[in-house]
Design a protein that fits this description.
The structure holds three protein chains of three kinds.
Chain A: E1 4-11, H1 22-37, E2 44-48, H2 52-56, H3 61-68, E3 76-79, H4 85-98, E4 104-111, H5 118-125, H6 131-135, H7 141-156, H8 160-174, H9 188-193, E5 196-198, E6 201-202, E7 212-220, H10 221-227, E8 232-241, H11 256-269, E9 278-280, H12 286-295, H13 304-309, H14 326-330, H15 334-349, E10 365-372, E11 377-384
Parallel strand pairs in A: 2-3, 2-4, 9-10
Antiparallel strand pairs in A: 1-7, 1-8, 4-7, 5-6, 8-11, 10-11
Helix pairs in contact in A: 4-15, 8-12
Chain B: H1 5-10, H2 12-17, E1 19-23, E2 29-30, E3 45-49, E4 53-62, E5 75-82, E6 87-92, E7 105-115, E8 122-130
Antiparallel strand pairs in B: 1-2, 1-3, 4-5, 4-7, 5-6, 7-8
Chain C: E1 3-10, E2 14-17, H1 18-25, H2 29-35, E3 40-42, H3 50-63, E4 73-79, H4 91-98, E5 105-109, H5 115-129, E6 134-142, E7 157-165, E8 171-180, E9 186-187, E10 196-197, H6 203-222, E11 231-234, H7 240-249, H8 253-256, H9 262-265, H10 272-283, E12 289-293, E13 300-308, H11 312-315, H12 322-327, E14 331-332, H13 335-341
The chains are: A alpha/beta, B mainly beta, C alpha/beta.
Chain lengths: ~375, ~130, ~350
């Protein structure tokens, strides 16, 4: 297995990007990644995208994006694992380079979510759940995470305050991120007084509907060195899955798929969670960040909430989480999110985080955790700067 | 989103009669039925019918709902553990949504679940209702 | 003769009071309460319809049937004026839900408020003739009354179900009699949402004449007199009509009391006298004779004489009793909620 590196990253504008189409968003991010990396060609392209069919009636993204990137002929493929599509695209690029099949691969993710009604967007996102036994019966995505939140609160005494603290912390970070959809701070009171979506989750517990794309160049360590640009190394990659239905999980207060994915990634990396200094995790809802921190072993079960309240996961805390602003503040163009997490870890490890968002202490190892649905799939990467 | 009639029809045994699969080796019951037991990889199974009572293990109240559910909001959605230990998700009908609690005893009733516009097919299935008798 | 081997009912928990409807339309609530003896009526929530009520009533009938295998039920007949589909049977959904498919005969009946007793009549006949071992008759409705119309104060929802058989009876059907003439007292044309009626014409010449016609004929046929019966159940478009017809036929208030549900339930149309029969069976003793006479506009009445058997004591507690559903744990709704539930609000769709 060859050493694999990330050498250049790019992101489109994120938010309600009325002037860009699905392909336009992708091209913006992809060209920026190509430019930042200094590569003169690609050997292949992976496009993570969850639901371009329901959102904009467009499938066949591999060919479309290669074409509009000005590279017709390029091997290109779309990758789907619901909201984990971006992370999975990155993993496939990693495997292709590690296995020696290609030298320079672009991992990208894109989603155009605002060209349809809110109802249609909600329905499209719900396609990640079990259509016949969850969605049929009235489940929505906030609803599924709300069911986890209720269970977590009952089992561990998790409080409204702990959830609000996650949203407040992520907005504080996102306020410093130039690509964030909602780059402003919010208050604990603001979260609690915002409209209730699915008890106990308020609108400010939820990540938004976002248009956006992200792209990274994945290559060998040898090429990365030659390019002369800052690069980071992929130490480990892991994927886990679980029952699609929340009801069938033995423990509804944990994301088992994330636990499995992390175990595999750490095993490959030859590291443990103690070696990691910060993480970008999948906070599609505030409760998701809390549960994931426990499922990754960063905190014991029931201990993440108090730690978050104590500021341990803040930018200047013991273990910063979602320095980018997370899905909550930065936005959540579902297929792009997993790739954007890699972009943030790249920036933090190479000291390029903007506007005072750089975490202190020159971190060496960071991780990403991206997940699909109510956690039926998850992908984890361990990244290091040398 | 259109629910083609064939799709609902295929699920009748589960939605109408709560049919599940019970595997021989593990003795575990799965709803909906599945071909392979995830615990043992066993494929030898028998058809069982789930009990119609249980307790809520977690719940939420959907306050903003999309499309065909919009008129129903707010509605309670819960996961219940039935008396045989099987868990399933359904709406909680016939109750004040603010009174749903973990541990609340429920009964399963046959209800209309989805109505596809004014001319489409009606989809029936199960909902939880408070077990008051 | 054939008779009932299992019976059950189902009612919505929701109710609306006569005053709540009256205040919207400027109607005189006391006159409805005194004149028609209507206090409140059941309201089906949007996830309940004739089919779902029928399924739950049928399940309760199965619970009281002493273990009838649904696969042995040869027919399911559902009488209703509110079948959810104009074309597509209600009966097959019920058959599927209780596990009675595919060797079964299903038909949906419509005869205004008499469709339910019609289903009972045909089910009994099939069993009696030996065509089948069991037949399930269901009377179910989620009736509609036009906003502000007198019917809006009564149109209600509920279901009663009866498994007919020959052995192991709860109530033996001793006699039946049907009586019909062509009577334009109440109707709903194709594609119309609400029924129309002939106002006071629906009284003397329609309800009373027909009910008395069928009642007197069966009394004559059976050689029995009103005092021979422990109980009597009549169609109940309101509280007043059954009370008056009972009195005129020579029955007492005590005889009709258990099955006289309209003041609190409203008019469940096809379900009215059949649900009244379930409530009556809930309190009947072995050996009791029960008189029953339905009425459906158009017009006709089916009358029945039931003789309760020893088995009633074993089965009555095996499923929820009708008066429990009628009297306990009610959820009162305001007119806005009722209008939303009953799709009376024009939506943008």
């Amino acid at each position: 297995m060859r050493n694999v590196c990330v050498v250049g990253v790019g992101m489109s504008k994120w938010g309600e990007v009325w002037r860009k189409s699905l392909r336009g968003l992708f091209v913006d991010a992809a060209l920026e990644a190509v430019k930042n990396s200094g590569v003169d060609h690609l050997d292949s392209l992976y496009v993570g995208c969850m639901a371009s069919g329901p959102f904009v009636s467009q499938e066949h993204l591999g060919a479309l994006m290669a074409d509009y990137l000005g590279m017709p002929g390029l091997p290109a493929m779309r990758v789907e694992s619901a909201c984990a599509s971006g992370g999975m695209a990155f993993r496939l690029a990693f495997l292709e380079v590690a296995g020696g099949f290609s030298d320079i691969v672009m991992a990208s993710g894109v989603e155009k979510m605002t060209d349809c009604s809110g109802d249609d967007a909600t329905a499209a996102l719900a396609m990640a759940a079990d259509q016949e036994y969850e969605v049929f019966n009235g489940a929505t995505f906030p609803g599924l995470y709300a069911l986890m939140a209720t269970a977590h609160m009952a089992k561990y005494g998790t409080t409204r305050e702990m959830l609000s603290a996650i949203a407040v912390k992520n907005h504080k970070n996102g306020a410093k991120n130039p690509v964030a959809q909602y780059p402003f701070e919010i208050t604990m009171e603001g979260v609690e007084k915002s409209v209730m979506i699915a008890d106990p989750l308020h609108i400010l517990d939820c990540s938004p509907i976002t248009d956006g794309a992200a792209a990274v160049i994945v290559t060998t360590e040898e090429i990365a060195k030659k390019l002369g640009k800052p690069y980071i190394k992929v130490l480990g990659s892991g994927v886990g899955t679980d029952t699609i239905q929340l009801a069938q999980r033995a423990d509804m207060t944990a994301i088992k798929a994330a636990t499995i994915a992390a175990e595999r990634a750490f095993k490959m990396a030859g590291k443990t969670i103690k070696d990691v200094q910060f993480a970008e995790v999948h906070d599609c809802f505030t409760i998701a960040e809390l549960v994931v921190l426990e499922s990754l072993g960063i905190y014991e079960k029931g201990k993440a909430g108090p730690a978050i309240l104590a500021g341990e996961t803040a930018l200047d805390g013991k273990f910063p989480v979602n320095t980018s602003g997370g899905l909550k503040s930065k936005g959540h163009p579902v297929g792009a999110t997993g790739v954007a997490q890699v972009v943030e870890v790249y920036k933090q490890l190479t000291g390029q985080a903007e506007n005072g968002r750089q975490m202190p202490g020159s971190p060496k190892i960071g991780m990403t955790q991206n997940m699909g649905g109510s956690g039926a799939s998850s992908v984890v990467h361990i990244l290091e700067v040398t | 989103m259109t629910m083609f009639s064939s799709r609902n029809w295929r699920e009748y045994p589960q939605r109408y009669r709560l049919e599940a699969s019970k595997f021989k080796k593990s003795g575990k019951t799965y709803f909906p039925p599945r071909a392979v037991d995830p615990e043992t990889s066993d494929t030898v199974q028998e058809k069982v019918v789930l009990p119609d009572t249980g307790k809520i293990v977690t719940y939420t109240v959907i306050r903003t709902a999309p499309g065909m559910w919009a008129d129903n909001a707010p509605y309670a959605l819960a996961i219940a553990e039935l008396t045989d230990g099987t868990r399933l998700m359904a709406q909680v009908a016939d109750c004040d949504v603010n009174e749903v609690k973990i541990g609340m005893e429920i009964r399963i009733e046959f209800r209309r679940i989805q109505t596809e516009s004014h001319h489409g097919v009606l989809s029936y299935g199960y909902k939880f209702v408070p077990k008051w008798y | 003769m054939a008779g009932i081997v299992g019976y059950g009912a189902h009612l919505p928990r929701h109710r609306i009071k006569v005053e709540e409807i009256a205040k919207v339309w400027g109607a005189d609530a006391p006159s409805y309460k005194k004149g028609l003896m209507l206090r409140e009526k059941s309201v089906p929530p949007p996830d309940m319809d004739t089919i779902t009520l029928a399924v739950e009533a049928a399940k309760n009938a199965l619970k009281r049937s002493g273990g009838v295998n649904p696969a042995d039920i040869g027919a399911i007949y559902i009488g209703s004026e509110s079948h959810p589909y104009a074309v597509k049977p209600s009966g097959t959904t019920v058959a599927e839900a209780i596990g009675a498919t595919p060797d079964i005969h299903c038909a949906d009946f419509e005869f205004a408020c008499k469709a339910g007793s019609e289903a009972m009549f045909v089910a009994l006949s099939h069993v009696d003739s030996g065509n089948m071992k069991y037949a399930l008759a269901i009377a179910a409705d989620t009736s509609q009354g036009a906003p502000s119309d007198a019917l809006e104060f009564s149109a209600a929802a509920g279901a009663g179900a009866f498994i007919m058989g020959k052995d192991n009876l709860i109530a033996d059907c001793l006699f039946t009699h049907s009586y019909m003439t062509d009577m334009p007292d109440f109707w709903r044309r194709e594609h119309q949402f609400y029924p129309q009626h002939g106002g006071r014409f629906t009284g003397e010449e329609a309800y009373f004449a027909t009910t008395k016609g069928a009642s007197n004929a069966i009394l004559k046929k059976s050689g029995k007199k009103p005092s021979d019966f422990a109980y009597a159940v009549f169609h109940q478009p309101n509280g007043k009509f059954p009370q008056r017809v009972a009195k005129e036929l020579g029955f007492t208030q005590e005889q009709i009391d258990p099955g006289w549900l309209a003041p609190r339930l409203g008019n469940t149309y096809s379900g009215a006298s059949p649900i009244g029969l379930t409530a009556t069976l809930d309190v009947a003793k072995p050996g009791d004779l029960i008189f029953m006479c339905s009425y459906g506009s158009g017009a006709g009445s089916d009358s029945f004489i039931w003789k309760v058997t020893e088995r009633i004591d074993e089965v009555r507690d095996l499923a929820v009793k009708t008066h429990k559903l009628l009297d306990e744990n009610l959820i009162y709704v305001d007119y806005g909620t009722y209008a939303k539930f009953r799709h009376k609000i024009k939506m943008n769709d």
